[in-house]
Fold this protein.
Amino acid sequence: MIVSKRIGIDCRLSGNAHAGIGRYIEELILRLPNINKEISWVLFFNNQKQANEYLQKIEPHKNNLKIVIAPIQHYTLAEQLKLPQIFAKEKLDLLHVPHFNVPIFYSGKLVVTIHDLLWHEFVGLKATTLKPYLYFLKYLAYRFIAQLAIFKASLILVPANTIKNVVHKYYPSSVNKVLVTKEGFAQEFSQNLPVKKTKPELLYVGSLYPHKNIEVVLKALSNLPNYHLNLVGARNIFQDQTKVLVSKYKVEKQVSFLGYLTDKELKNEMSQAFALVQPSFSEGFGLTGIEAMAASLPVIASDIPIFKEIYQNGAVFFNPHQSDDFVKAVKHLEQLDRPEVINRGREIAKDYSWDKMSFKTLAAYKSLLN
């Protein structure tokens, strides 16, 4: 047993505002202080409001928990120059940075989570709204920091074997320090809500970055005149570009932007929809598809390695480069035995648990500290 060890976790990206990474961090820190009370947990938040949102979800008093406010914006020079001093002041035995943005001057023992290496594979001005010279400066900085994070880390956590293989592809020397810790889903999605009649609705949940490839679905809608597409997610810089595409393909009457929804509201949408769509060219995990499967909603996903690994035989797959193939996937799902598809998805979802991920992460910490 580890006694009086101090483990720090960078929580500045926790919460719903930071999508999948935010959910990953939040689910981890909600569990770890309860799983092991002998360890002193030091959690670094960006501001007191963010810390309070976390504290409201746990027991009011924890002797093994310390909150540190680190008002440093991610992806900034201050993150590299000031944050190491804040971390060092806490005299940590281990620091977990759950993203690639590791301060290069931090010298303590380090665990890093690499959710994906998307920007290694999708390079170009279509992936940004920045001016060209700013984009390429930012891209070079990203490559440098990511490489250094992987080099400095004693352990690299990834959400799937597909991402493990991608890390090995770009950084072969990391082969012996990568550990897969599969993610989970909120129990809200597996709780029963009143059964409602399925509508001819397609549901998309997530950001609207170009690699998410929502265009292939918009292009297909004219050949699916009875279907409506609901887009769920907080507003981001690519929403206006998506609205331009909606106009381009003349499908304004078939598309709705629902904005951010709570887990309960999203589960309600899932109970009415025909399918969740996951048309991405690249993903780190595909959490919303697992949530949909747990909520008894079939998934139509692009035929890419990460989705094939995570969704297995629980989804209908299509070529993400061909809108006609998406139409065929919808028609194919119409012909399948829906209860059988739903049951396959629910069985697959059972393999994904935030509790399992947290216990495996804690075991990894212990192995390093021992």
